[in-house]
Q: What sequence folds into this?
């Protein structure tokens, strides 16, 4: 029954300026269609993507979408008395909209990735974690994942916020937008010097905003960080990602498989 339940998401352009820039993207018509209606995301998909960041652990229990999908009870435990599932969407448990930072962050990732899938026709097999650099000289990177739809490289900077009423562009949401803009400036400077560690043909910023209204929907604002020039071929990258996923499954079932070694 859980897999049949859906979460309604209202997709919106952050403002007129961001809308103008995003409508220059090849996916403009898809975005306009999503903004004109409500997106319905299976609850199981949301709960799985909430834990998607754990792929970076490199453990068998959080290897990919399928293995994480078997642990959605972990997400439900995390969200207990932090987030409520309503008859149509999700809302903050606290009537003032206050939330733990880590909850907002991973809700932002889950909603952002789900919306990107629908804009570019992607699946969980198309996403690969962006390696994070650490230390004093670490270069910035987009928050979460990189993918290819076969034509373009896609990166998304996912943010999340919890407010009393997400129909109002609150200071908390504006602060998340500034964070995306700040990273955009840093990455643009690196791109000019040819030093961007993770260039992408299309970049998006998403801000998922949950509020305390029991009769409201979570909103996902779209913003437009600038793209980079990429030398890698998108179709090849997509094929390699899917072959890696196949290799991981074969290795799990048969660690000594010659086919897995070849892949």
A:
């Amino acid at each position: 029954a859980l897999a049949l339940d859906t979460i309604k998401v209202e997709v919106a352009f952050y403002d007129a300026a961001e809308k103008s820039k995003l409508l220059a993207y090849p996916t403009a018509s898809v975005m306009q269609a999503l903004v004109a209606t409500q997106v319905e995301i299976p609850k199981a998909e949301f709960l799985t993507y909430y834990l998607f960041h754990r792929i970076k652990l490199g453990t068998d229990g959080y290897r990919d979408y399928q293995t994480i999908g078997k642990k959605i009870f972990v997400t439900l435990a995390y969200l207990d008395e932090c987030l409520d599932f309503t008859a149509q969407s999700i809302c903050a448990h606290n009537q003032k909209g206050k939330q733990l930072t880590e909850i907002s962050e991973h809700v932002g990732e889950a909603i952002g990735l789900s919306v990107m899938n629908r804009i570019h026709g992607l699946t969980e097999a198309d996403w690969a974690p962006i390696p994070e650099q650490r230390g004093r000289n670490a270069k910035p990177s987009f928050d979460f994942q990189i993918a290819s739809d076969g034509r373009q490289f896609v990166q998304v900077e996912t943010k999340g916020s919890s407010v009393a009423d997400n129909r109002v562009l609150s200071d908390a949401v504006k602060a998340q937008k500034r964070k995306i803009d700040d990273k955009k400036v840093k990455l643009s400077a690196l791109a000019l010097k040819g030093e961007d560690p993770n260039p992408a043909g299309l970049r998006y910023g998403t801000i998922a905003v949950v509020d305390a209204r029991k009769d409201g929907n979570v909103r996902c604002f779209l913003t437009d960080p600038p793209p980079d020039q990429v030398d890698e071929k998108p179709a090849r990258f997509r094929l390699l990602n899917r072959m890696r996923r196949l290799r991981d499954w074969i290795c799990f079932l048969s660690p000594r498989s010659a086919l897995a070694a070849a892949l």
Observations:
- Strands lie at 6-13, 38-42, 83-85, 90-92, 128-129, 145-148, 153-163, 202-211, 218-223.
- The two ends are 37 Å apart (CA to CA).
